[in-house]
Amino acid sequence: MPSVSMGGLQLPTMSSLLSLYASLSAVIMIVRTILNDMIPESIRDFISRKASDFFSSYFSRDFTFLIEDHWEAVENETFRAVQAYLPTKVGPDTSCLLLGHNDNNNLLAVAQPGVSVYTRIVDHFQGMKLEWTLNEKEEKYNSTYYIPKNQWFQLRCKRSDKERVMDSYIPHICRTAEKIFYDREILSIYTYNQEESNWESTVFKHPATFETLAMEPEQKQGIIDDLDLFVRRKEYFRTVGRAWKRGYLLWGPPGTGKSTLVAAIANHLRFHVYDLQLQGVRSDFELRRVLTSTTNRSILLIEDVDCSSNSTEPRSSDEITNDDENGPDVKKRSASDKGVTLSGLLNFIDGLWSSCGDERIIIFTTNHKEKLDPALLRPGRMDVHVYMGHCTAAGFKLLAGKYLGIEDHELFKRIEDLMRKFPATPAEVAQQLMISGKPEVALDGLVEFLKGKEVDRIEKIGGEEESKSKNLWCLMRKWKNKKKKKKTPLVAEE
Ligand SMILES: Nc1ncnc2c1ncn2[C@@H]1O[C@H](COP(=O)(O)OP(=O)(O)OP(=O)(O)O)[C@@H](O)[C@H]1O
């Protein structure tokens, strides 16, 4: 290489440096072209991302936490906590905010704030500066695979604050979110969308409360006390080694207020309701996924459990054995789409999967308790069995008070007597009381309705008597025919 001598030192000339640079650039370009041709784009991306992560983690003074919407295939509770917490930290430097509500019956409902994608939110906590952004990856699908949309929060802080974020800041977020959830004014009801494989929510604004529920006062108070005790007993459940769950079985004829009681429980506890139709779930495997994606402080409602696909079908002997050992073997069925099996359901009530989540209430309703598999009724499975029966005198008085605003009336005694003879459901009574705002008219209507039940009954009995006599007549005819047939051979013989 040409060089110049300076004070005894041999230095390369400018032109030789330029030609060295040119030949190095040419070599790099050739290598790059070869690599680009030989290595697929996804692998090149991966290598460059890894290299950039490696160098930035060495030279950057920041640290990044990523909080994804799912954690080990179930909803990530930390993500949910951040989602509830961040809207409370919107400051002057926040440039964008989501607003909305899902109260589809009320256009004037107050819009709730939410974090919008890619918006930077800055929070300060114990002298630390914390920068948040919500990121999103669009769903991808083609004929062979489907990757659902996923979101994650990115939290950037100083590297030196990393430990404090983990030990103090994140627990602070979770505590704040818990309070937000606890104080929430809006309840939601979720229904499972099988097509989309997710829960869809809408605002739950059922007006029923324990006050409006027609029921025997002691029975009602018993339920309220049980619920209040349940929510206070977090530590107790931990100490005795049980999942913090409570199972209710509500049974009784249609129109006696089972669904109304569920609404009253949700309003009393301020719990969301997950309304699950077991027929809409393809397998035990799907059931597990569906149930693990429900949130804490919620009610899982399975109505008309006696009609729910395979869940009341008698179990095979091996199922019973496995179940009774508290570990039902669902593997055999999990891959198939045979619907939910009783084992799958029981496993969620008190098997190993029952420990997923806290502060959950499971409610089954049925019109026919006798049709349920005894395994479902075994002590410990459904903690509380509530019979919702026909309207009692106390129930009627409560309904009259709520619907007509009266505490007493001369027709009360007559109505109570009639109801004892001809039981009516609270739904029927409520229906009659709604007919008029005038107590006289509504109560008269109720008397007529109850008397109508007597007529119905007589007609029914009459019908039965008639069919009995028809049966008798048929028997007589058969008997006569038999006698005739018996006689015929004799005549022939003669
Ligand atoms: N115990 C009750 N107290 C107050 N209202 C009641 C009661 N029972 C029924 N009702 C009234 O009747 C309507 C129907 O009752 P609800 O749907 O709760 O009955 P259900 O027992 O769940 O019936 P089903 O078994 O058919 O689901 C309610 O909207 C409510 O207005």
UniProtKB/TrEMBL annotation:
Residues 244-392 form the AAA+ ATPase domain. SMART domains: AAA. The keyword Nucleotide-binding applies. Residues 308-335 are annotated as: Disordered. One of its GO terms (biological process) is response to stress. Pfam families: AAA, AAA_assoc, AAA_lid_At3g28540. It catalyses: ATP + H2O = ADP + phosphate + H(+). InterPro entries: AAA+_ATPase, AAA_N_dom, At3g28540-like_C, ATPase_AAA_core, ATPase_AAA_CS, Mitochondrial_chaperone_BCS1, P-loop_NTPase. Its cofactor is Mg(2+). One of its GO terms (molecular function) is ATP binding. Keywords: ATP-binding, Hydrolase, Magnesium, Nucleotide-binding. Belongs to the AAA ATPase family. BCS1 subfamily. This is AAA+ ATPase domain-containing protein.
